[in-house]
């Protein structure tokens, strides 16, 4: 047993399992035809909500974050390899003094999953539109309408030339150096970002795929790779490269372009991307 196993009360007068809160993994796979499949757990008959369906999860330990806890609980309850999950975001249901966090993540394939503990009766991949046909665990039924709309990854494309120009750090003296500083600063997004513009996703915290597009004299910045950051050296116009990235992107992911360039904003919006200005990004670095 972990130190989080036990009952806790919340500000709404409810009693919940998990002394330090709880978290679960909403794992999904989007196949080549665009069909979204959701991995569901049927809870053991002897437990709370016995026989109902929901996401894998459970009580958090005092020392772990919600993503770690959700992945650990899932690995304890079924045979899914947590290392294959790409986490896209978290959604919190706060009861006042106690909370449950849904961790939303995708898998590259719909691998067979079997029960791995007495808490799991069955594990099944279910079409997203058929989830509500099951008898759902009440807390999962309550959060499903919200997390259902969150089953999508986010690609954050940064127009380096434009963002660098919004920083008063002497970029005009050394464009390549300013781009390198921005590249290094983007590592701070590894822990996720809050406050997505326009309510793009119902996430309290999002873990986007970050792409930095550099051009001209700063193209060499892309020769120094940084873990967790995709660097793209534009062969010509940086604007054209950014638009191509949006148009050729994974249809299962949304795109958010960071730029203040009016013409580029219009082109990206026409290609289907959302737009935000450099200030939004710089406030998070």
UniProtKB/TrEMBL annotation:
Molecular function in Gene Ontology: hydrolase activity
Q: Which Pfam families match?
A: NUDIX
**Does the keyword field hold Hydrolase?**
yes
What does the UniProt keyword field contain?
Hydrolase
Span of domain Nudix hydrolase = 18-156
Give the top-rank taxon of the lineage listed in the UniProt record for this protein. Bacteria
Q: What is this protein called?
A: ADP-ribose pyrophosphatase YjhB, NUDIX family
What organism does the UniProt record list as the source?
A: Actinomadura mexicana
């Amino acid at each position: 047993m972990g130190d989080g196993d036990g009952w806790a009360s919340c500000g709404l007068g409810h009693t919940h399992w998990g002394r330090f809160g709880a978290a679960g993994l909403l794992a999904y796979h989007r196949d080549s035809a665009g069909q979204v499949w959701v991995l569901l757990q049927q809870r053991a008959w002897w437990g709370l909500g016995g026989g109902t369906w929901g996401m894998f999860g459970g009580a958090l330990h005092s020392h772990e974050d919600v993503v770690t806890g959700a992945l650990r609980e899932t690995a304890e309850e079924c045979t899914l390899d947590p290392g294959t999950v790409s986490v896209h975001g978290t959604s919190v249901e706060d009861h006042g003094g106690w909370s449950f966090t849904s961790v939303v993540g995708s898998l590259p394939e719909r691998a067979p999953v079997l029960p791995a503990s007495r808490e799991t009766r069955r594990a099944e991949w279910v079409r997203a539109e058929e989830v509500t046909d099951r008898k759902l665990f009440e807390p999962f039924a309550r959060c499903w309408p919200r997390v259902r709309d969150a089953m999508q990854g986010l690609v954050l494309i940064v127009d380096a030339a434009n963002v660098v120009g919004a920083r008063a750090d002497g970029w005009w003296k050394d464009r390549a150096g300013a781009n390198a500083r921005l590249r290094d600063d983007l590592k701070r997004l590894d822990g996720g970002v809050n406050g997505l513009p326009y309510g793009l996703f119902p996430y309290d915290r999002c873990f986007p795929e970050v792409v930095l597009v550099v051009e001209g004299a700063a193209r060499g910045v892309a020769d120094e790779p940084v873990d967790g950051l995709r660097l793209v050296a534009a062969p010509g116009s940086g604007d054209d490269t950014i638009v191509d990235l949006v148009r050729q992107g994974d249809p299962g992911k949304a795109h958010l372009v960071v730029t203040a360039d009016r013409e580029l904003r219009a082109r990206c919006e026409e290609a289907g991307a959302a737009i935000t200005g450099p200030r939004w990004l710089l406030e998070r670095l």
